[in-house]
Design brief:
Blueprint (H helix, E strand, L loop, with lengths): L1 H28 L17 H7 L4 H4 L14 H8 L7 H11 L20 H6 L4 H5 L16 H14 L9 H4 L2
Helix pairs in contact: 4-5
Length: 181
């Protein structure tokens, strides 16, 4: 009886190894890759209108990016800095104001996500002269934000190498321990 169980266990392990070899390698290479991801948000927010037509700088709303590893989703009071005085009324603006009055956060869907085992710091990149559009694309032309760059390890390392070649003196690291826990 125990010999049969051992054979079944070995068969299951063998199938798992073959399956992982066939499908796992590609899956591991694609961890965190969501290029083209453009989820519908609970309130339609047009970066084309705000960052493009109105020319509101990225860092006005995403101010945390200058001093934090996360750019963050702006608090609703940042939206209200303008919308409290603007006369334009839409269903989405009214929903925004209602959320503020009820002190109820909006459940935005995060667009740019990295795997948990990756450390990324927005402030370090901004201090290094990396423009928002280099990773996020031409957000000012997007009605709905989408992930433009693949945000893969190879893509990041290529950028670090190109910057190192272009900017002698400030060398972006390609040391694994800088980005991986």
């Amino acid at each position: 009886m125990t010999v049969t169980r051992a054979r079944v266990a070995l068969l299951i392990i063998a199938i798992a190894v073959v399956t992982a070899g066939a499908f796992g390698a590609d899956a591991v290479q694609r961890v965190g890759v969501h290029r083209g991801f453009a989820p519908e948000q609970p309130i339609a927010f047009s970066h084309k209108l705000h960052a493009g037509e109105s020319q509101i700088p990225c860092l006005y709303c995403h101010f945390a990016a200058t001093r934090s590893r996360h750019a963050g989703i702006p608090p609703l009071n940042v939206c209200m800095n303008c919308h409290a005085i603007l006369q334009k009324r839409t269903r989405d603006i009214e929903r925004l104001k209602e959320s503020v009055q009820q002190r109820r956060p909006i459940a935005w869907t995060k667009v740019h996500s990295l795997p948990d085992f990756v450390y990324f710091n927005h402030s370090q990149h901004l201090l290094g002269g990396v423009a928002c559009r280099e990773c996020h694309g031409a957000v000012e032309s997007m009605d709905r934000v989408r992930q433009e760059a693949p945000l893969t390890m190879g893509w990041c390392i290529d950028c670090h190498r190109q910057r190192a070649a272009a900017h002698a003196g400030s060398t972006p690291s390609t040391d694994c321990g800088r980005c991986h826990y």
